[in-house]
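User: Predict the complex with adenosine-5'-diphosphate.
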Amino acid sequence: MEKLKNEWKSCGINTEMCKHKFSNFEVWNAASERAKDTAIAYYQDFAKVRSERRNSILFCGQVGSGKTHLSVALAINFLKKKTRVVYMPYRDVITKIKQNMLDAEYYCKLISNYQTCEVLLIDDLFKGKINESDINIVFEIINYRYLNFLPIIISSEFSIDRLLAFDEGVGSRIYEMSKDYVVEIKTHINNNYRLK
Ligand SMILES: Nc1ncnc2c1ncn2[C@@H]1O[C@H](COP(=O)(O)OP(=O)(O)O)[C@@H](O)[C@H]1O
Ligand SMILES: [Mg+2]
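Assistant: Here is the predicted structure with adenosine-5'-diphosphate placed in the model:
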């Protein structure tokens, strides 16, 4: 168990996040039911769809609705089956990448991990102020994965329409890849688990 947890740490999954399991994700309203069902369906279909065009899953919308919880639950289950997932906390990673943009070699090394891993989990995509270089970095990662049919698990507080409005190139690729497993949780206080 310790060994497993250390392995997860190297993928960016910390001890706190290990609590995010399917078994403790409560179905407490229609939105949480749909979210959980879609996540489980994705997990079950994964072997079949992983190299297909529609091989990804998107959780978007309401803050506090369990998007990160279910994304991490998926990651933990994949890691248990030796499928290598890399966790990318969007805000932290993008900041680090931007600080290193002038060092081309280091920049490539930083983003290549997110481009090439077996499964990428982008948590909280486009959180915070975004500008053109954020979009460019995200495009480089998403487009690489799109071209190479590599799955992505994405959580974002933005609706699909907003994601498309930020950048159509990025938004439409994400949508195409996750079309079969889109969980859009309506922005409403009733969907915030913390306030239930
Ligand atoms: N349906 C649920 N059952 C159990 N815990 C939940 C559920 N939804 C959310 N939580 C918990 O509420 C907190 C916020 O969820 P989180 O996944 O961070 O939300 P989001 O990423 O959508 O903002 C976390 O501690 C998470 O484990
Ligand atoms: Mg979250």
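DSSP finds eight helices and five strands in the chain.
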